[in-house]
Write a structure and sequence with these properties.
Blueprint (H helix, E strand, L loop, with lengths): L18 E5 L2 E9 L3 E8 L4 E8 L1 E7 L5 E9 L9 E8 L5 E2 L6 E4 L2 E3 L5 E7 L5 E8 L2 E8 L4 E7 L2 E5 L5 E7 L8 E7 L5 E3 L11 E2 L4 E7 L5 E7 L7 E4 L20
Parallel strand pairs: 9-14
Antiparallel strand pairs: 1-2, 2-3, 3-4, 5-6, 6-7, 7-8, 9-10, 11-12, 12-13, 13-14, 15-16, 16-17, 17-18, 19-20, 20-21, 21-22
Length: 273
C-alpha cells in the first residue's frame, strides 16, 4: 500500500514473518522456528525471493534494514518478553548483505561511556537504527540501571554513549533527530512516552501520543513518525503523530504491525542482496 492511501488494498504474500522490515529493495523477515526460541532471519529481495537465511537464538523483537538495503539488524529476547524492569536479556546483531560480514552480538563491541572505556557483565544492546553511510548506527545499551543511546561503528566494532534514558531509537531522514520511547518518570513499569531527541542541542520533546508506546518508531518523513499499538482485543494498529510535539495521533493502518517505508535505491547503486 502507499503512504498516500495507507488504508487502501493490501496484498497477502506467502511469506510468514513475526517481524518484517523493507528498505532499498531488501526485506528482512524474522521467523520463529519453534517455541524453544529458535528463530530464522530471512533476507529477501523485492520479489520475495530468499537470498540468505541465518539461524538465530531468541524470540523476535526488533528488526531494521538500512535505507540502501545493504545492512540488516535484529534484536531478539533471550530471557523475558518485556523491557519493563530488569528481568530480561537481549541479543542484537548486524549483517552486511553485500560482503556477508556479520556481527552476531553487538555486546562484543568495545564500549565507551562518557568518554571512558566501559566493561560490565550486565550489558544489553537492542533497537538498532542505521545512518545513511551504512556503517554507523544508533542503538540502546543498558547497564547498571542506565539505558544509553549509543552510536556504533560496524567496521571499528565500537559503541559510544551519546545520551541517557533513550530506548528503541529511530533516526530521522535528515539525520538530526532520534525518535524514541522514554520511560515515564524514569520507571519502565509506568509505561513509555514517545519522544524526540535533537542530537545537536540535546533537547527532548514529548509527542502528542499519550498512550504507552512500546515500539521502535518509524519516521514516515521529516515531520511524522509511525508506531504500532495493540488494542484490548490483541489486534495491532499502526498510528502516526507529528514529530514536533504538536497535533494529535491518528490511525494510519488498522490491523497492521511492523511499519516500514521502502525508500527507492538511489540511481547507480545496487540493492543489498
Amino acid at each position: 500500500m502507499s503512504l498516500q492511501d495507507p488504508g487502501g488494498p493490501r496484498v497477502l504474500t506467502s511469506q510468514r514473518c513475526d517481524r518484517a522490515y523493507v528498505a532499498g529493495g531488501t526485506i528482512g523477515c524474522l521467523r520463529p522456528v519453534n517455541p524453544m526460541g529458535l528463530t530464522r532471519l530471512a533476507v529477501l529481495d523485492r520479489d520475495l525471493r530468499e537470498r540468505r537465511s541465518i539461524k538465530l537464538t531468541g524470540f523476535p523483537n526488533r528488526l531494521r534494514v538500512s535505507d540502501s538495503g545493504r545492512m540488516v539488524s535484529w534484536t531478539l529476547f533471550i530471557d523475558g518478553h518485556s523491557y519493563a524492569g530488569n528481568g530480561f536479556s537481549t541479543s542484537a546483531g548486524i549483517l552486511d548483505t553485500r560482503t556477508g560480514k556479520m556481527a552476531a552480538s553487538l555486546e562484543e563491541f568495545a564500549v565507551t561511556v562518557d568518554g571512558r572505556p566501559y566493561r560490565a557483565a550486565d550489558v544489553n544492546v537492542w533497537g538498532v537504527t542505521f545512518t545513511r553511510d551504512d556503517n554507523r548506527f544508533y542503538a540502546t545499551m543498558a547497564s547498571a540501571g542506565h539505558r544509553y543511546l549509543v552510536e556504533g561503528d560496524f567496521t571499528a566494532r565500537t559503541l559510544r554513549s551519546v545520551a541517557d534514558g533513550v530506548e528503541c531509537p529511530s533516526l530521522s531522514p535528515d539525520g538530526t533527530r532520534i525518535a524514541f520511547k522514554a520511560a515515564v518518570g524514569g520507571d519502565p513499569a509506568k509505561g513509555w512516552r514517545l519522544s524526540v531527541l535533537d542530537l545537536a542541542s540535546g533537547r527532548r520533546v514529548a509527542l502528542a501520543e499519550s498512550r504507552s508506546v512500546d515500539d521502535q518508531a518509524l519516521w514516515l518523513d521529516d515531520h511524522d513518525v509511525a508506531y504500532g499499538l495493540q488494542r484490548s482485543d490483541g489486534v495491532n494498529d499502526v498510528w502516526a503523530v507529528p514529530a514536533d510535539g504538536t497535533g494529535q495521533a491518528r490511525l494510519l493502518v488498522p490491523g497492521a504491525n511492523s511499519p516500514s517505508v521502502d525508500i527507492p535505491t538511489p540511481a547507480g547503486t545496487t540493492p543489498g542482496p
